[in-house]
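question for whoever is on the cluster today: can someone run the full assembly for these? two chains, 579 residues total. i dont have access anymore since they changed the login thing
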Amino acid sequence: MAMSATAVTAVRRPHGLLGARRSLDNLKVLLPFALLVAAWWAIHATGDFAPNVLVSPLAVWRAFVHLVTHGVLAEYASTSLTMIGIAASISMLIGVPIGFAVGVNRYAAHALEGFLRFLQGISGIAWLPLAIIWFGFSHTTTLVIVMYTLIVPIIFNTMIGVRAIPENYTLALRSLGAGRLRLVTDVYLPGALPSIVVGLRLGMGYGWRALIAAEMLVRKGGLGDLIFGARTFGQVDRIIVGMIMIGGLYIIVDRLIVQPIENLTVARWGMLRK
Amino acid sequence: MANDQIAPAQGKIVVSGFRHFFDTADGPVQATGVVDLAIRAGEFVTLVGPSGCGKTTLLKAIAGFIKPTEGAIFCDGREVTRPGRDRGVVFQELAILPWRTVRRNIGHGLEIARVPRATRERAVARLIELTGLVGFEDRYPHELSGGMKQRVAVARTWAADPDVILMDEPFAAVDAMTRLTLQEELARLCAATRKTVFFITHSVDEAVFLGDRVLVMTRRPGEIKARIDIPRRAPGGRDWESFTADPEMQGIAEQVLKLVRAERGAALFAEDGVQQPARRCDAGPQNSQRPSFETPASRAPQDEG
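^ ran it for u. tokens below:
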């Protein structure tokens, strides 16, 4: 058996027959979208809908082009993306260390598990009325709400991740002379990473949805503001453009940010639980 | 049995009057009987005994993972209270880190000790050769078989160069064929690198094959009932062919097996309500021509053996 000393990478470049199959896979992914658009077009074409109730796919496309060329879509989208970016960063910076501290301490973990679940039950959106009372209709309100929804799953999953680390890892390392800091950097952090990634994914999902809802209420920019504002003028085409952007951006952010983290770490270490 | 007071200076590892109880919901459970033993520098000592007799508990206490309920353990004269790099441990499984390559796992102890990179890489390269991992340096553990993973675990502990190496049934989770290979490789490794090793196992053959001295433990709560010296092996380590062909070795293995199986026999008697035979199996005068068997009954008070 030929032994190669080169590192095994998780991502391989498709070529030849493998490349063709890869493109076929991509087409398969697009199929549900195509079907949805086809059904939508059929429903609109056969029914008699007023333009402030339902529009055709073509009208939505035109609205999309209009919003893009006038820079409107870029502005609203970037507001939303900036907000989720800031919220995610802060939530990770605060949530992961808290999750660690709780996870490492067995008693704390037991005590807080129920409480964290309770907090998770009160979704961020339910905090909106209180947040608006305290912070008014401002970006602060939006940020607080989104951070709340992001941080709870991050803490919870980090905690689970730390607790799931086999005891032998820490025992083995202590027998190699590792001190506390070493254990954190060499065992706890990488060991909890798959769960942290899960927590981040979950948090991003909740956070993005809470963001749109908050924007609808606060009305200070962002895609939520766009679609809710369009409702006032019955601009259904804009609403649908906004919705598509919301869904599309979510996938893009996941693929561009969370997925690479997963590939570089969890997938490479063979720890992906499929 | 008299509680021999063994001065801490008499061995690399000295276990003195060790007895351990675990706290459970139903009250304290006795995990071991009173254990006294000493491991001299450069010795390979194997401990064999039935399941549940307390051998893992003893190893964990020597490693510093648990604090003895009674007695004390000394390493180089200093009392053991916590894990440390003077006592390396090779676990049965789930020991090497999945997020590090083979190379980085093996070098981990040296990395922790802040050994300069050049020295570290040389040591790692040497161990990779000695443990047959050439070509796998940059693989991750999930790409390795069970046997390879254990080789990495052994290499990592060896590379860190601890004073004593504790091995907790390291080959028990590996398939039978690979196990034989790993035992031979370990024998060669030890011949090449003269370390002090404490190796616990279920397997009598493994214990006699690998050990310079075999300790036999009684069933739970375990005490050491026999200590058997094994004649020197060939300079390059032992191999299974010559081991199974050697009548002297086979004779020793037979005797040790009898000692271990007697523990099971004792358990059966107890269940029948018939009077139990003495737990300590006296090797008896008929074995005077065999290599020295030392049982508590026969050894002199001062002699650790």
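summary bc i know u wont read the tokens: The interface with chain B takes residues 3-8, 166, 168-169, 171-178, 182, 186-187, 190-191, 193, 265, 268-271 of chain A (CB under 8 Å). Residues 81-217+244-267 of chain A form a domain with the MetI-like fold fold (CATH 1.10.3720.10).
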